[in-house]
């Protein structure tokens, strides 16, 4: 598993190790179509109204899927939100992993160069998927989501420490990686408010420069 990214595979696991209820086994073409329609509608409503004020009736109406099917596939509003989060995480993981693999295949083995390349890929993904990124940056999610996100944050820091070859037993090293990871996360949130792609690219370039300077050991 690459660094830079937060853990993607745990999105169906809730705090305490419980699985997300309501997601059926099996994945027929019809089920995929129904789930896509529900997730697209949920993203629209969550973005417009926030998680707390979003209504399942409105989500079902916009998707054209009965409320009963919504519960069958996702178990309710919380399941929809977590599924959107998982989708965002998985796409970011795919993007950063592909970037790191390509860099290594070119012979790049410098830890800082790899870290910054992965960070750029992550930030590019945050811009491309800014509607989802902006949704998860809000302090308005389902119960238990903050604890789950903190768990992912800790895993993200650990992966970045391995990528940067930092000794996690040393407090100074842990703090440095935590700061670098926080810089990436903060920049990703800023990208959600960018007016256009030119501004977004300027931010990504600036942040990557900051990461290089902060990563170099004095």
From TrEMBL:
Question: Which keywords does this chain's UniProt record carry?
Answer: DNA-binding, Transcription, Transcription regulation
The HTH tetR-type domain extends over 32-92
Q: Which Pfam families match?
A: TetR_N
Q: Where is the signal peptide?
A: none
DNA-binding segment(s): 55-74
Record-linked Gene3D superfamilies: Tetracycline Repressor, domain 2 (1.10.357.10)
Bilayer-crossing regions? none
Query: Which residue ranges are recorded for the region named Disordered?
Result: 1-30
According to UniProt, the name of this protein is HTH tetR-type domain-containing protein
Provide the species name.
Streptomyces glomeratus
């Amino acid at each position: 598993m690459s660094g830079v990214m937060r853990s993607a595979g745990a999105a169906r696991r809730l705090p305490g190790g419980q699985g997300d209820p309501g997601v059926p086994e099996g994945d027929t073409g019809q089920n995929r179509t129904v789930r896509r329609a529900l997730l697209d509608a949920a993203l629209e409503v969550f973005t417009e109204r926030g998680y707390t004020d979003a209504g399942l009736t409105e989500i079902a109406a916009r998707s054209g899927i009965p409320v009963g099917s919504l519960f069958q596939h996702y178990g309710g509003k919380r399941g929809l939100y977590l599924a959107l989060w998982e989708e965002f995480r998985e796409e970011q993981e795919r993007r950063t992993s592909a970037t790191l693999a390509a860099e290594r295949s070119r012979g790049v083995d410098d830890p800082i160069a790899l870290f910054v390349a992965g960070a750029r890929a992550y930030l590019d993904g945050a811009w491309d998927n800014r509607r989802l990124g902006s949704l998860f940056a809000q302090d308005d999610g389902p119960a238990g989501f903050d604890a789950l996100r903190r768990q992912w944050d800790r895993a993200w820091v650990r992966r970045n420490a391995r990528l940067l070859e930092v000794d996690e037993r040393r407090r100074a090293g842990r703090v440095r990686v935590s700061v670098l990871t926080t810089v990436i996360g903060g920049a990703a949130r800023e990208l959600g408010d960018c007016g256009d792609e030119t501004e977004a690219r300027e931010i990504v370039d600036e942040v990557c420069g900051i990461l290089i300077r902060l990563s170099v050991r004095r």
